[in-house]
Amino acid sequence: MPNRHLLHQRYPALPDLLLLLVAMVWGSSYGLAKEALQFYPVLGVLALRFGLSFLLLLPAQRALADPAIRRATLGAALPLGLGLLAIFLCETYGIAHTSAANAAFLISLCLVLTPFAEWLLLGQQPSRDALLAAAAALCGAWLLSGATHLQLNGGDLLILLAAVLRAAVTSLTRKLTADRPVATLALTGLQGLLICLGCLLLASLNGGLPALPARAAFWGDILFLVLFCTLFAFFAMNYALRHSSATRVALLTGSEPVFGALFAMLWLGETLSASSWLGGLLMVAASLWAVRPGRLQTAAA
Hints:
The protein is an all-alpha fold. It is 73% helix and 0% strand. Helix 6 (100-107) runs parallel beside helix 9 (154-177) and helix 9 crosses helix 12 (246-253).
C-alpha cells in the first residue's frame, strides 16, 4: 500500500467526516462573504481570498520537486483551477441577480447531476440507491430554500450553470487525482493561484480594483474565508475525491444548506418554517444514506 493511502487505511471514515465539516463551514460562510462584499468588489474579494491561500501553501509546492508528482499535480491543477474559477464567477454574479432561495435550490441541482457526470466522465453508472438519495436531497433543498415559485431569470441561469459545472468538476477531480501521485496540498495551492490570476485579469479589463479596505471586520471575514472555506475545504475535497466516489462527495457536501439554515437560526436569530425543517431532515437523511455501508461506499484504491 503506498504511503499516501496509509492515513485512509487507518481511518477509513476520515473522508466522510472531512466532507461533513466542509458542508458545515460552507453553510456558515454566506453571511461573512456577504459582509466582505460590502467593503470590496466581487473580483477583489475572490482574488484576495485565493491569492492569500496560495501564499500560505507555498511551502507545499516543494512536493513538486519529484517529477512524477509534478506531472500529475500540474496536469490536474490547470483544468480544475479553471473549472473552479468558472464556478465561483457564475455563483457570485448569479446570486447578485436572484433570490437567496432560488440560488440555494438551483445550486443543489448538482446533487442529481453529479451521478450522471460521473457516468459520463468516469464510466460509472449511477446505482438506484445513489439516484434515490440525490432525489431526496434535492426535494429537501427545495423545501428548505422555500423556492416554491421558481421563475428563471439571468441570475438563475448563472446559478444553474454553476450547478452543472460543480457536478462536472467534482467528477473530473476524481478522474484526475484517483490512483495518481498528486500532492493534495500543492494542488490546492495551485487551484487558488489560477483563480486569483483569473480574477485579477478580469478586474484589469474592467478598470482595476480599488485600494484595500482597512476595516477589521473585512479582514476578519477574509481570514475565515481563506483558512476554513478555502484551505481546509479545498484540501478536504481533493483528499476525499481520491478515496470516494464523486456522487458520495456531492451528497455529503450537499448538506451545506442545512448548516446554513441552522447558522442563520442560531447566530442571526432567523426562524425556520415547518417545511424548512422537513427539507433539512430530508437532506440529512440523504447524507446518512450516502455514508451507510453498502453500494454507495467506494473503497480506497
